[in-house]
Amino acid sequence: MILKATNIHKSFGALPILKGVDIEVQRGEIVSIVGASGAGKSTFLHIIGTLDKADKGELFINDTAIHRLSSNEMSAFRNQHIGFVFQFHHLLPEFTALENVCIPAFINGTSKQKAENRAMELLDILGVTERANHKPSQLSGGEQQRVSVARALINTPSLVLADEPSGNLDSENAASLHQLFFNLRDSMSQTFIIVTHNEELAGISDRTIHMRDGLIYG
Ligand SMILES: Nc1ncnc2c1ncn2[C@@H]1O[C@H](COP(=O)(O)OP(=O)(O)O)[C@@H](O)[C@H]1O
Ligand SMILES: [Mg+2]
């Protein structure tokens, strides 16, 4: 078991957003979360990504009790164990693709040589080696997302969380990004939890979780 969240509650002000969400995810699973806008999907992803704290409930990732960690411990845990891919790439514009991929490794204390070697391996796996020295603005949308995926993977995370990763891509680039997720799962047992509106992706996932009004169904 990679992830176990139990009875997660979250309110913003007086407004309850998550009303007791449970989820369990096994290593190597690709789980899709679908649901209408405003259902609480991103809020939930932020909590299981340790970017935000639940008001109530328990969260275990790789047997670590996240709900018992301090903010500093959460940041270190996040850097080492969670990779993020967002709808918009969030690559730093003044750095090259290679540098962007290396940054989480540098934060984790990895040497420049080791980080760059691993980053080049990942850029190769993701099919963007020839883009290593280009800035994000010089890349296509599909290439930017591939670089984002490499960045998410650089610290060999327990879990990759993606929030509408193909929401900004045309259907061909979306399909090829989704295929990459499955390749990464098959080759390195990488675990993914993906919030998506893409029915094709939800359809080929190992499991689809439906979220409505702060609760999970099925
Ligand atoms: N930081 C915040 N402060 C106040 N309300 C928020 C905040 N983040 C999200 N919300 C509200 O919580 C609800 C769920 O948002 P979100 O988790 O982003 O939904 P989804 O990703 O499913 O579209 C929405 O009504 C949104 O306006
Ligand atoms: Mg959202």
TrEMBL record:
UniProt entry tagged with the keyword Cell membrane: yes
Pfam families from the UniProt entry: ABC_tran
GO BP terms, alphabetized: lipoprotein localization to outer membrane; protein localization to outer membrane
InterPro entries in the cross-refs: AAA+_ATPase, ABC_transporter-like_ATP-bd, ABC_transporter-like_CS, MacB-like_ATP-bd, P-loop_NTPase
PROSITE patterns per the UniProt record, alphabetical: ABC_TRANSPORTER_1, ABC_TRANSPORTER_2
GO MF annotations, alphabetized: ATP binding; ATP hydrolysis activity
Ranges where the ABC transporter domain occurs: 3-218
CDD domains noted in UniProt: ABC_MJ0796_LolCDE_FtsE
UniProt KW keywords: ATP-binding, Cell membrane, Membrane, Nucleotide-binding, Translocase, Transport
Highest taxon of source: Bacteria
Homology family: Belongs to the ABC transporter superfamily.
Protein name: ABC transporter ATP-binding protein
Origin species: Sphingobacterium paucimobilis HER1398
